[in-house]
Design goal:
By secondary structure, the chain is of the alpha/beta class. It is built from 14 helices and 15 strands. It has a 7-stranded mixed β-sheet with strand order 4-10-9-8-7-5-6, with helices on both faces. The protein is globular.
């Protein structure tokens, strides 16, 4: 059997991408598939990456517009990270976290705590963003059980939110289509309005919209009862919801209401953490808030190794230690919690961020935002928005009604297809194109990226006109 496997592997290598695509169709279940093609589809095959670029199976070189999935922050093919993985695996490839620990995880926790706002001082490691949010919610439940408040378990989330794919984390999601066919813990979750200024009611000022969001938050707590609500979970910037940047002051006001009502504020920085906005964490440095917990993943290793985590307030841990239930067990853990290879990679990745990547991000981010903003000249584009090295181009059929192309919900895929042909990978989200390139991108490369995106949108406009879908 081993000889047969070796022969098949050799044949696949000889035939290159074609065999991989065929094997994918036969054996691979892609994430987020439709029932009509589940287990029978192949997606664009990527062969290698270098810096801000990736190369597909045809040899076409593409700018990696989404940086993988918001995560390849220091770029592809960083020898420093690859070498650390090798060295750590040769020293210690794994240890059980149930009754042993490793040095890289302890050092990384110390360094992460040093960047976190307020009194967030302790880290629980997970394998990614979904499990990080799941851990934060389970910790909230444990915390309230130990403190004698078993009814204080409801979770506040928002429309447009994305927090993961595990059961509890996915229950918080508020994007269109995410939950149409999927179950969730709906009895535990209360959804609030998205803080999306672009979609605020017609004629409402930004200040009035902010007041509306805050009043809705406060009124919901009064209606449901603060004694029933355990946590609010919110992204500083709603990433997969379309790079929704909240109005100024909104997050600070929500944080204060949570504090006044003893509701834990969980800041989901799975996307915004580790450099995306020019800082290790955006909660304090960009938005001026000090949450009770911060979840992170993605950029912590720049996507080179699966790792995530939750940073928890010292105050919460101290309250548990002082409780009347010292034997209460937080029955939660993962086989790969505190993985030594992942933590070693994260340490080196943090070195790279601190030694220049964060400063570079802060320097080029205004240029990135300004260049993307020029795409609003195109009649198909309703708004370009973003912060740091996160941007979204939202397409609409009509700028007055802000109709998101009801007749063609896949306009983002159309743009992505044209951009792929032109040398750019885009993250299409229904009628939106999301851009979050590696943080090492230069001004010249930003120019290239925006020029391709402009041409991709222009070609899409031509297609829509020819098909009679859109008049423009």
């Amino acid at each position: 059997m081993a000889a047969v496997r070796d022969l098949k592997a050799a044949e696949m290598a000889a035939h290159g991408g074609d065999d991989a695509i065929e094997l994918g169709k036969r054996h691979l279940i892609q994430p987020w598939p439709y029932a009509g093609s589940v287990g029978a589809e192949a997606r664009a095959l990527i062969g290698e990456g270098d810096g801000i670029y990736i190369t597909d199976s045809t040899g076409k070189r593409l700018i990696d517009g989404p940086a993988g999935m918001w995560c390849v922050n220091v770029g592809h093919r960083r020898e420093e990270l690859a070498r650390v993985m090798y060295d750590q695996a040769m020293a210690l490839s794994y240890n059980t976290p149930w009754y042993t620990m490793n040095a890289p995880s302890a050092e990384l926790a110390m360094r992460i705590a040093g960047h976190a706002p307020g009194d967030l001082s302790h880290v629980f490691y997970t394998t990614g963003g979904s499990s990080a949010v799941e851990t934060a919610l389970r910790f909230m439940q444990f915390y309230n059980n130990v403190r004698g408040r078993p009814e204080k378990k409801l979770i506040l989330s928002r429309g447009g939110a994305y927090h993961g794919s595990t059961y509890l984390s996915a229950s918080l999601n508020g994007r269109p289509r995410d939950r149409d066919w999927m179950d969730g813990a709906d009895e535990l979750v209360i959804k609030l309005s998205s803080p999306d200024p672009f979609r605020r009611p017609h004629g409402m000022s930004l200040a009035a919209f902010t007041d509306f969001l805050v009043d809705q938050f406060r009124d919901t707590i009064a209606r449901v009862g603060a004694d029933k609500i355990g946590a609010f979970v919110g992204e500083p910037v709603q990433a997969s919801g379309g790079v929704v940047v909240p109005p100024d002051g909104y997050l600070k006001r929500i944080r204060q209401i949570c504090r006044d009502n003893d509701i834990l504020y969980v800041s989901d920085e799975v996307v915004t953490g580790f450099g995306r906005l020019g800082h290790v964490f955006a909660s304090g440095d960009v938005f001026g808030i000090d949450p009770d917990m911060i979840t992170f993943a993605k950029g912590v290793t720049s996507g080179y190794f699966p790792l995530g985590g939750v940073i928890i307030s010292e105050r919460l841990l101290e309250e548990l230690r002082r409780s009347n239930h010292p034997d209460a067990l937080f029955g939660h853990g993962l086989t790969y919690t505190s993985h030594p290879v992942g933590c070693a990679v994260a340490l080196k990745n943090l070195d790279l961020l601190e030694q220049g990547v964060l400063a570079h991000t802060q320097a080029v981010a205004p240029y990135f935002q300004a260049q993307l903003k020029t795409l609003e000249e195109l009649p198909l584009v309703g708004e370009v928005r973003g912060v740091g090295l996160m941007g979204c181009v939202e397409c609409v059929a009509d700028r007055e009604s802000k109709d998101p192309l009801q007749l063609d919900k896949d306009v983002g895929k159309r743009i992505d297809a044209h951009c792929h042909e032109l040398g750019l990978l885009v993250r299409p989200l229904i009628n939106m194109c999301v851009m979050s390139p590696p943080l090492i991108i230069s001004r010249e490369q930003i120019d290239d990226m925006v020029a391709i995106l402009r041409e991709g949108i222009s070609r899409t406009m031509d297609d829509l006109r020819k098909e009679g879908v859109w008049r423009g």
